[in-house]
Amino acid sequence: MYMEAYNKILEEIIREENLVYKKTALMTDKPLSYCPGCGHGVAHRVIMEVIDEMGIQAETIGVAPVGCSVLAYEFMNIDMQQASHGRAPAVATGIKRCWPEKYVFTYQGDGDLAAIGTAETIHACNRGENIAIFFINNGIYGMTGGQMAPTTLPGMRSSTTPYGRDVALMGNPLKMTELVAMLPGTYFVARHSVHTPLAVRKFKKAARMAFENQKLKKGVSFIEVVSNCNSGWKMTPNDANKWMEANMFPFFPPGDIKINGEMVAKAEKSE
Fold this sequence. Notes:
Layout: H1 2-13, H2 40-54, E1 60-64, H3 72-75, E2 79-82, H4 88-98, E3 103-109, H5 110-116, H6 118-127, E4 132-137, H7 167-170, H8 176-181, E5 186-193, H9 197-212, E6 220-226, H10 230-233, H11 237-251, E7 255-259, E8 262-268
Parallel strand pairs: 1-2, 1-3, 3-4, 4-6, 5-6
Antiparallel strand pairs: 5-7, 7-8
C-alpha cells in the first residue's frame, strides 16, 4: 500500500510539465570524474545542452586532446576524436575540411592550448578555419601535478613555482584570447566563466553563437572559460571561486572581445 502511494507520487513529480531541470541526453550516464567543484563538468553540460537544443548531435564532432579535457569523450554523447597534446586545432582542421558540413569544435585546457599547442592554435585562428574552440583556463596544469602554466598569474603559487610566479624569471602570463582576437581569421572571440547561474547563462549564449557561426563560414569562434582548479590551487571549491573572482578576473576579464569579425572597443560584458 505504501509503495503504491509512493510510486503514484513519484510518477506525478516526474511528469514532463513538472520538471524544472533534467540532464541533457547528450551527457552520458558515466559519473563525472573531475574534482568536486571543477568547472569542466558544467562546461561539458552547457556545450551538450546547446548541441541538443540545436538538434545537431549527429552532425557534430568534438576534438579533445591531453590533460583534464581528454576525459570529455567519456561524458559527451557525440562523435569525439582524441588528439595528441596541443594538436586539437590541427585535427579539427582536417575533420572540417573533409566534412565541411559538420559542426566541429575543440575542447582544450590552458596547458594544452597555450603551451604545447600554441602554434596550432595561432595558425588555425589566423587561417580562419570554420571551427569553434573552447578554451578552459584555470591558470595551472591540473592533471599532471599543478605545475605553472602559460596562464599562471604573477605571484601565483604552483608545484613548480612554490614562491609564486616570478615575471622577471619566468615571463608574463599569456593572454591567448586577446592574442587570437587580433588575427583576421577569428570571427567571434569572448571570455566567460561557469561559476554562477548568471555566468552559465552567458556562456551558453556564447556557445550557441559559436556553433551558429559555423553556418556563416566566416572563421573561428574562440571562447575562453575562466575556471578554477581547487585541487591544484589547494583550496575548497568555494574559496577557489572567490579567489578566481578576486585574482583571475582582473587579469582575464570576462566579456566579448570580437563580434562578427569586429573588435569591441573595450571588452564588453555580454548580457
